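Thread: "does anyone have the structure for this chain?"

Original post by V.I.:
We have the sequence but no experimental structure in hand. Need at least a predicted one for the grant figures.
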Amino acid sequence: MASLYGESHRELQDAFGARQLADIVERAVLREQIGEPERAFIESRDMFFLSTVDHRGRPTVSYKGGGPGFVKVIDENTIAFPSYDGNGMYLSMGNVNGNSNVGLLFIDFENPHRIRVQGNASIQKDDPLLAEYNEAEMIIRVQVTEIWKNCPRYIHKYRKIEPSKYVPLDAKETPMPDWKRLDILQDSLPAKDQGKAANHGGMLTMEQLQALEQRDD
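Reply from O.Q.:
Generated one for you, tokens below.
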């Protein structure tokens, strides 16, 4: 197993007298395969943070949410999750297309706990798992290279109030986000969204959208 630490890490560990501690922590928690406790925790989450690297070598982080269990542990080396409809930018997925290196952070805010994952991701547009996710556009499979439990002491405790109404469910139609009802966007929407605004409250001007957002806040 390759060490998590490079010279830049060692410099700081030595400066603060933590090299020995860092070595012990790495040996104690770092794994190359997903164990049963990690699998159960990951599959219980309804959100995680995904870190990718863009075409300029810059790291970026995005929030990914879904229903509980939307991230699946396929085997001890593989994690899979869906890519749902977004704003058309495809920043994270485009980054994965260009650089497979990813990081994933799974957190429980109610009972502070977190797991970090490093791996190599690939995008599958015809993955068999698509049939298990309503409205998913792609499946991302991550081959795990390192996984470890992280100290939870600085995780603030939060409680979820309600799930997002935009998470696709099999039993109901997913509502159209208000920004897709903007009049200036109608000709630019993907074919699947053309004409939908009329069935979701009609088109909006920018001023009307801003008023709705202020009301929701």
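V.I.: this helps a lot. Residues 32-150 form a domain with the Pnp Oxidase; Chain A fold (CATH 2.30.110.10).
O.Q.: and Residues 19-29 form the longest helix (11 residues).
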